[in-house]
Amino acid sequence: MHEAEFFVPSRDARLFARAVVPHNARTTQSGEVAVFVLSHGLLDNIESPVFAHLQQALSRLALASVAFDFHGNGNSTGTTSYGNYYDEADDIAHVVRHLRQRGIPGAAKPLRVIGLLGHSKGASSMLLFAFKYTHMCPPLIINLSGRFWLAREITMRWTDENQRQLRETGRFLWRRYGRKPTKSNGGGIEGGEGDAKQLVREYWISLDDMKVRATTDMSVVQALPLHRCFALNISGSRDQIVPDDDVWEYDRLMRLAAPSSDRVVTRIVPGAAHFWNKPRELEALERTLRRWLVDVLPRVGL
Q1: Residue among 58, 76, 53 nearest 5 (CA)
Q2: pLDDT at residue 178, rounded to an integer
Q3: What's the rounded Cα separation, in Å, for the pair 118 and 145?
């Protein structure tokens, strides 16, 4: 097993990434290592249990993976905002290009990105990447608990005080997030890759952010290149963050674009919630991924 941590330069940030490459990693017919790119949800990062498990689960299928922190999250630099889905799609493009051109530090073989897996907000951003950068879209797309109707807010997400500040000032501080800088994450080290000033951050919500989010149209999934791609949509039956009608709308619209129904698969995992942070949820998720991948990998030359 080869593991590496590195930074990917993007337009205005440095994106922290972690690669896991099993010793028996699958390769394409031309000898390139097949790799998945993983993207996280709102104010999350690659240290969350679901991403640690997903990278190990993919390695058990002899698949390499690279998980990264969007700008303004985790150990990446920059700032983030509530409605920046297309900005995050651009982050994914930077990571995919970097892997194509420079590979993974310490890995001898060239790479080919053969799949994308996004969770929650990262799933929506991943689908927008596949729409905006159709020419870069890999053959396998996995949407894990992604929201379709972005104008629909979670009940009770904002407090009365949040809403009062929004009316009066046009913005409010929703939460502080991140972690204190340490030597291990690059903070406090002169010339260190991490940005100590931005590891503990404030997350402000503005009226403009909410408008951008509400007007981001996810029906563009009808234009995904499903004539050459396979899509898997996964949701948990106990997801109280994203209702299950979101995943079924993705399913419906993707099927309109797909030349055959077997190119789009949707699975509801019994008993699973939105964050996939319990052992039984992670085990069920891995079984769902394994069944689908065992079916589609031969169809994309792996």
Answers
A1: 76
A2: 80
A3: 8
CA 128, 41, 22, 92 dihedral sign is positive
Count of H helices and E strands in the chain? 7, 10
Q: Is the pLDDT of residue 78 over 70?
A: yes
Structure tokens at 254: 């993707």
Question: Are the C-beta atoms of 190 and 181 separated by less than 8 Å?
Answer: no
User: pTM value?
Assistant: 0.92
The pair of structure tokens assigned to 290 is 């394994």
Q: 68 and 46 in contact (C-beta within 8 Å)?
A: yes
Residue ranges in the chain assigned as alpha helix (H):
49-60, 85-102, 121-132, 160-169, 207-214, 244-257, 279-296
Tell me which residue has tokens 């998945």: 36
Q: Which residues contact 207 (CB under 8 A, 6 or more apart)?
A: 166, 170, 171
Contact 146, 268 (CB under 8 A): no
The pLDDT score that the predictor gives to residue 264 is: 98
Nearest residue to 269 (alpha-carbon basis) of 247, 252, 253, 251: 247
- Buried-exposed string 130-167: b where 16+ CB fall within 10 A, e elsewhere: bbbeeeebbbbbbbbbbbbebeeeeeeebeeeeeebbe
Alpha carbon distance 278, 199 (integer Å):
26
Q: What are the tens digits of pLDDT across the range 241-293?
A: 999 999 999 999 999 989 888 999 999 999 999 999 999 999 999 999 999 99
Q: Which long-range contacts (CB under 8 A, 24 or more apart) does 243-246 make?
A: 244/268, 246/146, 246/147, 246/148, 246/149
DSSP assignment, residue 197? G
Q: What distance in Å separates the CA atoms of residue 272 and residue 277, rounded to the nearest whole number?
A: 9
